[in-house]
Amino acid sequence: MGAANVIPGVSGGTIALITGIYETFINSLKSFNLEAIKLLFQFKFKELWEHVNGSFLSAVLLGVGVSIFSLAKLMEYLLKYQELLTMAFFFGLIAVSVYSVGRTVGKWSLSSIISLLVGTGIAVGIALLAPASENPSFIYVVLCGIVAVCSMILPGLSGSFVLIIMGNYALILGAIGRVDLGILAPLLIGCVVGMIAFSQLISWVLKRYPDQTISMMTGFVLGSLLVIWPWKTTLTETIERAGKEAKEVVVGYQWHAPDFGVTQTYTALGLIIIGGVLIWLIDRSGSMRGEEVA
Asked: Which region, left, alpha or beta, applies to residue 240 given φ > 0 means left and ψ of -120 to 50 means alpha?
């Protein structure tokens, strides 16, 4: 999940869904409720740890943290100097994951198919949206925090990409650089509210409409392939940051077909296959463990 969050257009929620921990992850986030607050103020730390599934969450968050710090520089280098090949690998990974996620749907009914199409349409629509203009108002920054954390939880939607679409990616990046609490405080409020409320909503719909929910998430993952398509021209603009070097930010894409007259295209196709095989092996390994437990 940490590695996925470093890649533009890739969601940590997608990896959680592929590896089979998504529902447990959502239910663990959901457990940060009034009961958890009550246990905290009663100093019942052992009961609180068990209530929020602390062992699971700490393992996931440790993995995310280690992965981000260990892979961030590597991914930054690869995306700068080998973007096409890097995105090709992740394209294969995500493309096969569409099947891996989709096959967990219990029954492909008409409602499930409609949910799949809606999810795909939403993800594609977000990818095609032109970025909005910057808006530093308190309410809008809170909304950015809510939408960003929700998109990070949802498979197939990248939180950073959504912030770019909302026009406040540069604003928030600059606020982090200069520790501007006027921006970071409402952003944090939005993130906390979004995480608690959205995890409750996702948990509820997963229990009530499991097939339709997974179908829509499959659509999100399928639609995200548009952003991860290796053969595209990235449109950027340079932003100024207080006390730091200027940074280029993605504002859109121009897609094109692969050029079969260059060797790199065949290398990219090979990496697509490798990424797909990797996810197939992960999926197969998870299925075998499930059968052993059963």
From this structure: beta
Domain chopping of the chain, boundaries: 2-293
Q: What is the pTM of this model?
A: 0.69
- What residue type is 210 in one-letter code? P
Specify the amino acid at residue 71: L
Give the pLDDT confidence score for residue 169 in this predicted structure. 74
Residue 294 confidence (pLDDT)? 44
> For residue 84, which of 267, 252, 279 has the smallest C-alpha distance?
267
Torsion of CA 258, 259, 264, 270, to 10 degrees: 40
Would you state the pLDDT for residue 82?
85
Mean pLDDT by 10 residues, the chain (294 residues): 63 73 84 86 89 88 74 70 86 82 83 92 79 80 86 70 73 74 89 84 85 87 83 76 64 82 93 87 62 46
In sequence order, what are the residues at sequence separation of 6 or more whose Cβ sits closer than 8 angstroms to the Cβ of residue 110? none
The length of the chain in residues reads 294
- Is residue 154 within 8 A of residue 201, CB to CB? The reply is no
Extract the tokens encoding 114.
């409609």
